[in-house]
Give the backbone structure.
Amino acid sequence: MDKALLVIDYTYDFVAEDGNLTCGLPGINLEQYMVDTTIEFLENGQFVVMPNDMHEANDPFHPETALFPPHNVRGTKGREPFGKLKDVYERHKDDIVWMDKTRYSAFAGTNLDILLRARGIKEVHLLGVCTDICILHTAIDAYNLGYDLFIHERGVASFDMEAHQFALKHFKNVLNATIVS
């Protein structure tokens, strides 16, 4: 096990057409790639983590409250993996680490770095939404922690296409990430 797959925020609220903070069709179109890549990593014995936003209902102290509508609220359907990825998660629950996060980065306030280092992982592959928010912030932290970054272009999306394109350029030109086509 030398690499890890992080499937970030691919949840109902971020992807479904009626999700509370959805990227809509761009996110929906990732579904099969998400499923196939997750299964491939699992079949190859690689470490798979699903870091997902978790917010409390009516939390006036969380900084995102002023920026976005309530989303991924604890105990709601919005936090469930979207579409066929939910089935993959249910079938492989014992092999996938579900990780609650309360900030954009999957590293902020979590034990993700400890889990990766304990397994000797140096290579981190990122999939999920939104490219310019949670994927970008996770990538920056991974870069600063010394991980080799792989961003799967067919596995990331956003509700803001201009910001999505900016993030892809930033990954490659500033974070020295490999963009997997």
